[in-house]
């Protein structure tokens, strides 16, 4: 309380006591905005080249090798500054820079995922109906199905022929290549569809992709529309229909990453979740020279379907990697993990004024306020959440502040509105300290997500500062 008759300067007091609400752009200034723009030119190129987990790992291996990383050899002893990577089946990856202290004081991990929602092919996809050739699909991850109709799609993935030959597929990205689409009913005849709820309007079995409309020329016999497409695929890839059984093929939006807004301040693209954290985490580890602590960037697969499978983070591959690093120094993995920390690098929901009722404005993350921290995720009373310890939150905000990282903290929407999870659980299970850190996204999980360039750059700066901190 102030003394009687003494006037309080509320402005001064607010500056001292309350959270700073200056806009992010004003806080960092023009120079940082320029750096963000430059950083995001690289990010947009990456988005256009790496739309699936396999393409991301190929891209990342090349970037890592250019930055001096070599394949990890568990038999070898490493010294401070050495750079190694482990490629898990071409779909997930761990990259490490050995620290001056090695692993004995714990390691620092940034873990992002590189899979994203998409439309996968069924094992027996090709069929014809009413003189059109189509592919049956099974969607991957949490999508709003109606958003995936009537947009251009490209086909990505891998086919392993019976004879073992591997065929990489990428069609619909380059100028002049065909693209594909899932049709929708015209509004004139949409009465039945329009009467349904959004979640029922398009059924999973209706996500059939249009891939041809001509029959085999001069052909006689059955299924000439299907046969014509199979014939084209045979000529192009040397495959027969049964080879599609041993394949992983996905349709993704064929859009290129573009600037959004008159001010060019944002990027619209497919797959920001979670390439927008993966790219900065990869760039940060590549930039990391001789850190105090051993630093690791993990690029994980399968997060969108629960981190399952041997390339998801519920698998032991990160643990084996850490155990091998530990063993090379004569340490037990559990002792390393217990002293380790991790930034679970995944996107968060940016406040959207069009859907304000889903958010609690005072505890949301906003575009251009920097990289977002989430102490906890989960839903219905923090269920299924990591809920970072206050001690670790304090450590991270100190590191970010000292590194001039623009950051904010928020929750994913209103308390009872829904929720989500990340790989934080898979790493906290090893008794490491984990907090969720990521870029706020608009239209998350849609075919065209939006982020701010400043936030992308601040994610990079955040991971870099975390790796370099003493
Ligand atoms: Mn994610
Ligand atoms: Mn997601």
From TrEMBL:
It comes from the Bacteria. One of its GO terms (biological process) is proteolysis. GO terms for molecular function: aminopeptidase activity; metallopeptidase activity; zinc ion binding. Its EC number is 3.4.11.-. GO terms for cellular component: cytoplasm. Its cofactor is Zn(2+). Keywords: Aminopeptidase, Hydrolase, Metal-binding, Metalloprotease, Protease, Zinc. Pfam families: Peptidase_M18 (PF02127). It is an enzyme of class 3 (hydrolase). The keyword RNA-binding does not apply. InterPro entries: Peptidase_M18 (IPR001948), Peptidase_M18_dom2 (IPR023358). Belongs to the peptidase M18 family. This is M18 family aminopeptidase. It comes from Candidatus Acutalibacter pullicola.
